[in-house]
Each structure stands twice: as C-alpha cells, then as structure tokens.
Task: inverse folding
C-alpha cells in the first residue's frame, strides 16, 4: 500500500480552500503524468488530507485547493469529538484516509439519494441522486493501479469528488431552478465576504 495512507499520521500543512464561483472549480482537471509520481505528490496528498480533516470534511479534490489535477482524498470513517463541551477544540481519531489519483469508473449501478454539502459551496445542503454501487480504478501515490468497490456514503463521496475533477459542482446536479438560485446566492455571499 501507499505510504501516505498506511500508518497515517495526522500532520501536514493547511491549504486554502477555494470557493464557488472560482473558475478552477468549473475546469476539467488534468491527468497526473507518470513523472509526477514523486515525493512532492505525496506531500500534496498529505496536506490535502490534513486540510480535509481540519475543515472538517469527508472529501477534498485538488481543484478545491486551486490545483487542476485529477487527485482527490476521502475519509468517511473518522471520528471527531469536541475535547470538552463548548471548547471549540476537537479530537480526531479512527482515521481511514484514501487517496485517488486518475480515477476511472469501471461500474456504476443502482440509485441513492443523500443530502450533500461541499467545502467550496459553504452553506448549501441539498439532496443529490447518485449511483449506489460503484467500482473505481485509480492510482495510489506510488503510481500503482488499484481498484475499490464502494457503496453508500463512500460511493456518494467518491462520485462527488470525481465530479470536481470534471469541473462539476454538486448544484450542477440539481434542477435548473435550484441550481440558478444557489449560484446567485453563492456569488452574492462571496461578494459580501470580499467587501467585509
Ligand atoms: Zn465538493
């Protein structure tokens, strides 16, 4: 297995998460080339995991940190508990990080609907219909080809993150009416943030 996820250590550098409508979020990301599987890539994946855990989120794709590359990280299993009530400090445990590079779906079947959110679309939570069961082929940080079968939340999360690599955000999967409503809301929200 790969070094980044095997005996995972919760450490790294926190990266800045870009928010909608940043153009990197609507750009199709590039494949990671064979010569790019190096220590720098491992460092990047480590930092992406750290950023995801701190956000906190269950998935983070490279375009969300402003990098248009076909890479994402997920963990749908970790625990996050407040150290003491109201302290605002959290203890994280039971990490189960996964790193996907150049992922490709081998199978998609069934239906599942789940309320999704996104670190790049703050404050938006909506039901999205996805495939229930998937098989994905991908490369690990050593460039080795791996395959994973996923159901339920892991399957949903992988599809959500893979969409980011194709320049798709989850509101693109809603009706036109809802999509336009949230687009306007997010643009307004961002403008307001920039001026305050
Ligand atoms: Zn997202």
Result:
């Amino acid at each position: 297995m790969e070094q980044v996820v095997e005996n995972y250590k919760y450490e790294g550098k926190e990266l800045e998460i870009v928010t909608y409508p940043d153009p990197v979020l609507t750009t199709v990301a590039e494949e990671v080339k064979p010569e790019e599987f190096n220590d720098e890539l491992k460092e990047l994946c480590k930092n992406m995991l750290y950023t995801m855990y701190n956000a906190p989120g269950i998935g983070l794709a490279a375009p969300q940190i402003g990098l248009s590359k076909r890479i994402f990280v997920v963990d749908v299993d970790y625990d996050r508990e407040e150290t003491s009530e109201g302290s605002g400090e959290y203890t994280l445990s039971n990490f189960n990080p996964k790193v996907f590079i150049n992922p490709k779906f081998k199978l998609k079947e069934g239906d599942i609907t789940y309320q999704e959110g996104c670190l790049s679309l703050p404050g938006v939570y909506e039901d999205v219909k996805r495939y229930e069961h998937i098989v994905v082929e991908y490369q690990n940080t050593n460039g080795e080809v791996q395959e994973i079968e996923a159901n339920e939340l892991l399957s949903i999360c992988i599809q959500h993150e893979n969409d980011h690599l194709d320049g798709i955000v989850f509101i693109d999967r809603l009706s036109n009416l809802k999509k336009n409503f949230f687009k306007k809301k997010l643009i307004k929200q961002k403008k307001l943030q920039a001026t305050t």
Observations:
- The beta strands are 59-61, 71-74, 79-82, 90-93, 98-109, 112-116, 126-130, 133-139, 145-151.
- The helical segments are 39-54, 152-165, 176-195.
- The chain has one domain: 23-195.
- The mean pLDDT is 95.
